[in-house]
Amino acid sequence: MVLIARYPHTERMAQSVLLTGAAGRVGEAILEGLADEHEWRLLDRDPPTEDHPGEFVVADITEGDTVREAMEGIDVVLHLAGDPRKTAPWESVLTNNIDGTQTVFEAAIDAGVEKVAFASSNHAVGHYETDERTPEMYRTHDDYLLDGTELPRPGNLYGVSKVAGESLGRYYHDEYGLSVVNVRIGNLTEGHPPIDYERGQAMWLSYRDCAHLFDRCIRADYDYEIVYGISDNDRKYYSLERAKDVLGYEPQDNSARHDD
Amino acid sequence: MVLIARYPHTERMAQSVLLTGAAGRVGEAILEGLADEHEWRLLDRDPPTEDHPGEFVVADITEGDTVREAMEGIDVVLHLAGDPRKTAPWESVLTNNIDGTQTVFEAAIDAGVEKVAFASSNHAVGHYETDERTPEMYRTHDDYLLDGTELPRPGNLYGVSKVAGESLGRYYHDEYGLSVVNVRIGNLTEGHPPIDYERGQAMWLSYRDCAHLFDRCIRADYDYEIVYGISDNDRKYYSLERAKDVLGYEPQDNSARHDD
Predict the structure, then answer these.
(1) Interior CA angle at A95 toward A161 and A226, to 5°?
(2) Which residues of A175-214 are buried (b: 16+ CB within 10 A; e: fewer)?
(3) Which of B152, B171, B174 sits opposite A167 (nearest CB)?
(4) Which of A29, A130, B48, B114 fits a 20 to 30 Å CA distance from A109?
(5) CA separation for the pair B185, B165 (Å, rounded)
(6) Residue B135: partners with Cβ closer than 8 Å, 6 or more residues away
(7) Which helix (DSSP H) or strand (DSSP E) does residue A16 occupy?
(8) Comparing B5 with B78, which gets the higher pLDDT?
(9) Nearest-CA neighbor of B118 among B56, B58, B76?
(10) Mean pLDDT of A24-42
(11) Cβ of A106: how many Cβ atoms within 10 Å?
(12) Which domains does chain B have, with CATH numbers?
């Protein structure tokens, strides 16, 4: 009841969630925070090295048949799988990030999944960080904010692959009514970024806030959204308004505060 | 001198132009109008069936080495090659449209090309044509206009591939200073569309205006642009302002007038 009062969205309790790229860092943060909150099916091409909740499917995201099987009975997909390197070569992001994401969306539609949260990236808009704007845009007093209504400006070919993934989400939402949220993740690190690393301070996403943000992607109701995924840093050039308003995101951490 | 007065841009005379997808319909319209205007190198996987200006390279757009060779000495690339079917399957647009376009941009950078005009499509924004807006948006009195500042909403997987191609253009412009224009082409037909085909009336691009528009993409100076490619139709839901202001586009045809 309290939850419903705080977030004016339909709330669900435990959901069946497929987490692709479960062995990566974002997956680690999510599972640290939410292992007991949902029924998990984990998928990664690397087998698990530690204890994990739920089932684990060892498969590459481009293996259509296996991805389709893994989608059965799933309510929500958190799609993180892909080459995470900002310097990844084109051939890899074409296959793992673009083609892999299309495989996931197509399988989600076939299986009747309700929502897909896609792990997009700050690199989808990396070239807004121009020589003219930096380092000013990283500073607390600077009021330059990206809010998701701006056109993409990828900073590298990895970023291009994330823009392509977002546009797949837009298409599968418009065509089939699938709920889709593209989460442009900042810099996820377990500890606070160095105080003199200005960009890192502005882009920080703590593990705790990351888990909470994806929990909101699982529980909230939405149509199609682009949100930024950072903590509530004093320095920021990404707006958190859509994440707060639509998803009910309430970040707890701030790169400028070490007393959390 | 007169040209410089009309268009406040640096004007060049004949340019060395590489036209990919030269054997397709857009290529046909361009060559009908501009065969004698520039020095042409044509590229298509289908060999020529008729007389053609300049050189002809028979190659698939995904053949990197051949595309790189074809780029030598080129000032401007008009990149039309790709699967043109709005119902094209994902595997085809992934290879021919997305990967092929990255091959073209990469080769253009390596060869020191100045400008690339990319044949994007109305399908990159096809899902703005919602049930609520149509058919009103196709009508003369309706003032709904897309102008290129809106976020993409692809209408099919072909449209997704065009969004990906546009974002490649954005990246190669931002990263390397390449001039890039994405031309969202409407419905190119040699004759006027049927008077009772409302969407076709609104989307029409005549062969003459198509050739002129790509001539402006070759001659004008620009940084990064998204323009719509239609004739000056009474019915329209695409703004021509950027094409007119930046490129000096002056369309002659109008789907509502048969007396041109």
Answers:
(1) 30
(2) beebbbbbbbbbbbbeebbeeeebbbbbbbbbbbbbbbbb
(3) B152
(4) A29
(5) 14
(6) B198, B199
(7) strand A16-20
(8) B78
(9) B76
(10) 97
(11) 18
(12) 12-247 (3.40.50.720)
CA distance A220 to A108: 18
List CB contacts (< 8 A) between B163 and chain A: 163-164, 167
pLDDT tens for A240-253 read: 999 999 999 999 99
Distance of CA B117 to the CA centre of its chain: 6
Confidence category of residue B258, pLDDT binned at 50, 70, 90: confident
Burial tier of A12 (Cβ tally within 10 Å: 0-12, 13-18, 19+): middle
Convert the pLDDT of each residue in B230-247 to its tens digit: 999 999 999 999 999 999
Cα-only R_g, chain A: 17
Which chain B residues are within 8 Å of A106, Cβ to Cβ? Answer: 90
Identify whether the C-beta of residue A35 lies closer than 8 Å to the C-beta of residue A56.
no
| Sequence-ordered list of residues with C-beta below 8 angstroms from that of B65, at least 6 positions apart, any chain | none
For residue B171, give the chain A residue with the closest CA.
A154
Q: What is the average per-residue pLDDT within B54-77?
A: 97
SS3 state at B206: coil
**Encoded tokens for A84:** 């995470």
Q: Does A127 touch chain B (CB under 8 A)?
A: yes
On average, the pLDDT of chain A sits at 94
Residues of A annotated as catalytic are 158
Q: Tell me if chain A has a CB within 8 Å of the CB of B86.
A: no
Side-chain-side CA neighbours of residue B12 (13 Å) = 17
Q: Which of A103, A109, A88 is nearest to A180 (CA)?
A: A109
- The CB-side HSE value for B118 (13 A sphere, CA atoms) comes to 34
Extract long-range pairs of A129-133: CB within 8 Å, 24+ residues apart: A129/A155, A129/A199
Which member of B7, B128, B138, B158 is catalytic?
B158
* Candidates A98, A153, A171; nearest CB to B170: A153
Establish if B99 touches chain A: CB-CB under 8 angstroms: yes
Q: What is the ipTM of this complex?
A: 0.94
